[in-house]
């Protein structure tokens, strides 16, 4: 069975949304993620359903089948390994690498990807803190919670971003917030759900709820 680049892009998007929400993915969410129309998504997921890669039910959304999940994990593995290479070896900023990795993830050579993995020292997390699947599709797990849900007076290590847009990553860099930093919650503001935090014990920083929702820490 031939799997096209478009098939793989859809499978990756469906897998990532299902992982984040842990439920059937609405076609509108896929359309938004891939910047296409809901009608185009419906047509595509029907084709993927016929190939046995997803399970699609009209008006209920789509979930990924085991065969589709295997393909999605391998695309994701390539994407995240290329992000590590671009940041660690070519010194790109973490906000610059997603679009480049989107192009590189479609390289088909399994040998190249395995050698890339070995060359990088078999990393388990991407520059944005996302777990990297191994060649068998398995990946590491860390307890992670959104900073929004951390109580005043508590702290944790910043290990990942939930939604890593380039604008958001640039914002974090300008505020001195980086992966591996210790973040302490000093005060939560009831009025607008913003919070005062300290990064590595430095003077406090105010961040919005939208920002704290997207910062994942491990206690």
Instruction: Assign the structural class, choosing from mainly alpha, mainly beta, alpha/beta, alpha+beta, or little secondary structure.
Output: alpha+beta
The overall pLDDT average reads 91
Question: What is the overall silhouette?
Answer: globular
Widest sheet: strand ordering: 3-8-4-5-6-7
Could you explain the architecture of this structure?
The mean pLDDT is 91. 32% of the residues are buried. The protein has 8 helices and 8 strands, in the order αααββαααββαβββαβ. A hairpin with a 5-residue loop joins strand 6 and strand 7. The chain is globular, with a radius of gyration of 19 Å. With 219 residues, the protein is an alpha+beta fold.
Topology of helices and strands:
Elements: H1 5-21, H2 27-34, H3 38-50, E1 54-57, E2 61-64, H4 66-88, H5 97-104, H6 110-119, E3 145-146, E4 155-161, H7 166-174, E5 182-188, E6 195-199, E7 205-207, H8 209-214, E8 215-218
Antiparallel strand pairs: 1-2, 3-8, 4-5, 4-8, 5-6, 6-7
Helix pairs in contact: 1-2, 1-4, 2-3, 4-5
Descriptive tags:
8 strands, 8 helices, two-stranded antiparallel ribbon, alpha+beta, globular, six-stranded antiparallel beta sheet, 43% helix
Short description:
The protein is of the alpha+beta class and 219 residues long. It has eight helices and eight strands, in the order αααββαααββαβββαβ. The protein is globular.
């Amino acid at each position: 069975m031939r799997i096209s680049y478009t098939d793989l892009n859809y499978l990756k998007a469906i897998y990532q949304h299902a992982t984040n929400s842990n439920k059937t993915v609405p076609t509108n969410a896929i359309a938004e993620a891939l910047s296409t129309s809901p009608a185009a998504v419906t047509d595509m997921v029907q084709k993927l359903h016929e190939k046995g890669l997803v399970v699609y039910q009209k008006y209920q959304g789509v979930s990924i089948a085991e065969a589709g999940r295997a393909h999605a994990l391998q695309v994701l593995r390539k994407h995240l390994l290329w992000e590590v290479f671009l940041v660690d070896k070519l010194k790109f900023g973490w906000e610059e690498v997603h679009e480049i990795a989107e192009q590189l993830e479609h390289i088909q050579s399994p040998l190249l990807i395995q050698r890339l993995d070995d060359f990088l020292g078999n990393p388990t997390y991407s520059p944005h803190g996302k777990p990297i699947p191994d060649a068998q599709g398995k990946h590491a797990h860390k307890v992670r919670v959104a900073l929004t849900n951390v109580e005043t007076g508590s702290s944790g290590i910043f290990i990942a971003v939930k939604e890593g847009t380039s604008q958001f990553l640039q914002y974090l860099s300008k505020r001195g917030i980086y992966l591996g930093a210790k973040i302490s919650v000093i005060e939560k503001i009831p009025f607008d759900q913003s919070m005062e935090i300290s990064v590595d014990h430095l003077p406090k920083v105010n961040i919005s709820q939208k920002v704290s929702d997207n910062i994942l820490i491990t206690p």
